[in-house]
Amino acid sequence: MDAERQHEAVRLPEGSWWDWDVVAWDAAELRLAASYDLTFLHGLELVFGDPTLVSCPAKFLDPVFRAPTSEELARVTRQIGEEPPVLVAFETDAGGLEPVCCLIAAERIEVVQETVLRYWRDDAAPGQRFAPWVRSPAPGRRRLGGIEPHETRSTF
Question: Rounded to an integer, what distance in angstroms lies between the CA atom of residue 61 and that of residue 68?
Fold first, then answer.
């Protein structure tokens, strides 16, 4: 994003981006995922590089992205000691009685649109990406619906 566009509202590609959650977060990156239903896959990620301030729930619904207010920009600038290159603002449903106001400050943002599986599939297409927590089952073991099978023993 160039300097003049750095604090505009995020523009999402066409799609049904109702259900959101945080799929990865460390000092280098915050990754938010979205889909119409996060049970099996997600099709959109907002990737924030070098996040300096994050104020949003871990799971949320139907965010409405907007440009940050001048007051929000001033507050974040005071909190982190400089104006952030990227400041994203949105209101969202976090399950409470009122919408939650969210802010994310970072060095950069990238919008990634691709299908990311949230469970193991042996028949995934070559190069298909899996969510960070998905691991291949041990050889000879099957996973059913994303759940590792377990032994059931009865004792009499």
Answer: 19
